[in-house]
Amino acid sequence: MYDKSIHVTKGQRYSDVIHSRDAVAVKSNGIIKDLTDIAEKDEDVFPVLIDSEDGIAILRHSAAHLLANAVTNLYPSALPNTGPVVENGFYYDFDMKPISEEDLGSIENEMKRLVKENIPIVKEFHTKEELMHIFSYNSYKTRIIKDNVTGKSTLYRQGNFVDLCLGPHVPSTGYIKAFKLLSIASAVYKYDEEKTLVRIYGTAFPSQKMLDEYLKNVEEAKSRDHRKILAEM
Question: Cis peptide leading into 171, omega within 30 of 0?
């Protein structure tokens, strides 16, 4: 985040004032907002840079949506559940047929295609009734809406993909350039212990150099653990 604030006039879109390509959002009074949001009052805001702590969290949140977009393109019957940011990365849970780690490459390739298209990520406001209709095909999303939405809430749309979310997100898929899918696991749906979901883990960084360094450190840590186990044996 910048050290200096930038003044925004009521009715201005933040992106009309924040011109840095490295900015992915703005922060005002501790609240992070999308660059595409419109100022509701005259205020001083701080640009959130993609390599800041907040910026990386936004990037990874958007990468989780990118993953879900790619999975639903490749597996049309897959139903996305939730995809939060976690330490050092993100994951997304899907109700879908089992896949293996060999399938991660094709999913990554689809994600890269979506990044290359630089698809705008657009926030929309809808009533609870409208959201229930939009996500009527997905019982996981309608459960979230029933439990958490009272008046209006937001969804984010990127091309053919739409997801229930509070945001914020990067302005377009083109911002998500350095990512890696890491593993697949099983996850139990919290409302039905007999329902098993496919969980795909990944990570994303502001640059390929930062991603490469992280992956190198992970491999070195695994190697040290392996040598330690062998020594103990």
Answer: no
Measured in degrees and rounded to the nearest 5, phi and psi for residue 170 equal -65, 160
User: 115 φ, ψ to 5°?
Assistant: -65, -45
The pLDDT profile of the chain, 233 residues, written as one tens digit per residue, is 556 889 999 999 999 999 888 999 999 989 999 999 999 999 999 999 999 999 999 999 999 999 999 999 999 999 999 999 999 999 999 999 999 999 999 999 999 999 999 999 999 999 999 999 999 999 999 999 999 999 999 999 999 999 999 999 999 999 999 999 999 999 999 888 889 999 999 999 999 999 999 999 998 887 776 556 555 65
What is the distance between the terminal CA atoms of the chain, rounded to a whole angstrom?
A: 48
What kind and span of H or E run contains 89?
A: strand 89-95
CB 184 within 8 A of CB 207: no
Q: Scanning the structure block, which residue is given the tokens 């657009």? A: 122
DSSP readout, 131-145? Answer: HHHHTTT-HHHHHHH
Distance CA 144, CA 81 (A): 9
Q: What is the pTM of this model?
A: 0.92
Give the type of residue at 60. Answer: R
DSSP 8-class letter at 82: -
Q: How many residues does the chain have?
A: 233
CA-to-CA distance for 9 and 38, rounded, in angstroms? 9
Q: Which two tokens stand for residue 150?
A: 């009272």
